[in-house]
Design a protein that fits this description.
The chain is mainly alpha-helical. It has helices spanning 2-13, 17-30, 35-48, 51-64, 69-87, 98-118, 126-138, 142-154, 160-177, 181-193, 199-218, 223-236, 239-252, 257-272. Helix 9 runs parallel beside helix 11.
């Protein structure tokens, strides 16, 4: 049965949905109470957009393994999909409509299940915590979201890609919800400086580049923007451009240790070659 559901998920990827559906149904008939079959069958239905069926199977699996963080996370993801659809519905904005109350209920369900998913493993369930924070942001609970991001940023010795995604998400929160330019840019900078090639690092790079270009259009002597451009060129391996920008930044911010250190390092590396 386990092989059948895994094969079904593979078939779905190759657009063989009819065969995949049959396999899932056969597996559920064969072993209707096996948690792993239930969880992967539920994942299949979630990907197919059959959310009610997915939640039904996940809750059945939860009865067998009530403390499964994975199951809580999957249930929350189903509710989130429903929630996002409902947020886009104009009727959900007015308390007199049933959609408004359904939206309120979905916010609670998402928070409950994402919360259960990371309650006992805050170091490893980073995605669930970020998803929880995102739900809080969507519901206007900015202080709760800030608390989650603050705790995540305190974590030590975590995987580099996890640190990058935390920095990027927390940076976006500071940029858009808290309107803090300095906090957001320093978080994007922190994510960028983690030497690991990921899409979140690229996103941090793009955020910083866009910000620095806008700043320099308004004021060509903005030292922080010049320093950011220097760092971006340094990361790209364009040493001469990086030196040029760090020198310009130091003309304005004479004693900036970070720029002095970067400039020294760049000049030494050129001399060595």
């Amino acid at each position: 049965s386990m092989a059948m559901v895994l094969l079904a998920l593979k078939l779905r990827e190759f657009k063989q949905k009819e065969d995949a559906n049959k396999l899932i149904e056969q597996a559920l008939q064969k072993t209707p109470d096996f948690p792993y079959v239930l969880r992967y069958a539920a994942k299949f239905y979630r990907k197919e957009g059959v959310l009610e069926k997915s939640v039904q199977l996940l809750k059945k699996a939860l009865e067998i393994t009530p403390h499964s963080a994975f199951l809580h996370d999957q249930i929350a993801m189903c509710y989130r999909t429903k929630l996002v659809e409902l947020i886009d519905n104009p009727r959900s904005k007015y308390p007199r409509n049933p959609e408004f109350h359904k939206k309120k209920q979905l916010f609670s369900q998402c928070k409950y299940h994402f919360g259960k998913a990371f309650k006992h493993r805050p170091r490893t369930a980073i995605k669930s915590q970020l998803d929880f924070a995102d739900i809080c942001v969507k519901n206007g609970e900015h202080s709760n979201a800030k608390e989650i991001y603050s705790e995540l940023l305190k974590l030590k010795d975590i995987r580099p890609e996890n640190l990058q995604v935390i920095c990027f998400k927390a940076g976006c929160f500071e940029q858009y919800q808290r309107r803090s330019e300095s906090n957001s840019m320093s978080l994007f900078m922190k994510g960028l400086k983690v030497e690991y090639d990921s899409k979140e690092r690229k996103k941090c790079y793009e955020k910083l580049e866009k910000w620095a270009d806008v700043k320099l259009c308004k004021d060509s002597r903005d030292s922080m923007a010049l320093g950011v451009k220097g760092l971006l060129h340094q990361i790209d391996g364009d040493k001469s451009k990086a030196i040029e920008y760090f020198e310009k930044a130091l003309e304005i911010d004479h004693n900036n240790e970070e720029y002095l250190s970067a400039l020294c390092e760049l000049r030494l590396s050129i001399e060595e070659h």
